[in-house]
């Protein structure tokens, strides 16, 4: 029997406030600015601490410095869990509104929704805000997501699915605003960059379709899905890759990044470039997918 769809009260004001906090901190939250990273980790932990969940830091060292993941746990994760994650660091001297404050705001709002709506789940949920997704640590064991995924593997924790939020705030209604790694894809996907994508490995097509399908049930935004062999670089450019490395099923929710957003890794990646109406629809869709996965 198909579950009835509740009202999913995503609050744009909270999304905006979270993005504003992350993008306003100076100096920017990249790996050399530990005070800024710690301040943002503290903000995330404070917001999650308002909810009825367990909140903790997962601390680890890279190049002699200490970094932190922030983890919020709802329900019993000892038998099986769903992981929802987003990184809070930036690549350089940039505000990082889309990359990746948008996703952190989405992560916090999803946790608030779970706390408010209290869905009846047969699995626990961990929300994880990661540090060190960006260079020079990308694709290394020092990625916060790899630290988290490895810790789950070491304890033989069952992960039903991992959902990675990566750049969910930038959209464009201009024609031909969407670009592609292979030109032939323009005949398969929209050429206007006003959709969200569910991305994953070809071998996990069922999970991709399930997540995308549930998102479409509640979202007014167009939800596209993209699956490809793992050897295609574009599908593994975020924290979900760490869970693949540990043998866990994972997908990425993404607005196609630099194939659409001209502000990617630039000082112009500012809050005024984001579309909070569409962000709201993305979060609403991810919530529904997360509780029905």
From TrEMBL:
Residue ranges occupied by any Peptidase M28 domain in the UniProt entry: 69-284
Chain segments annotated as transmembrane: none
Organism domain of life: Bacteria
Biological processes per GO annotation: proteolysis
Gene Ontology MF annotations: metalloexopeptidase activity
InterPro entries: M28_fam, Peptidase_M28
PANTHER family linked: METALLOPEPTIDASE M28 FAMILY MEMBER, PEPTIDASE M28 DOMAIN-CONTAINING PROTEIN
The protein's name: M28 family peptidase
Taxonomic lineage from the root: Bacteria, Pseudomonadati, Bacteroidota, Cytophagia, Cytophagales
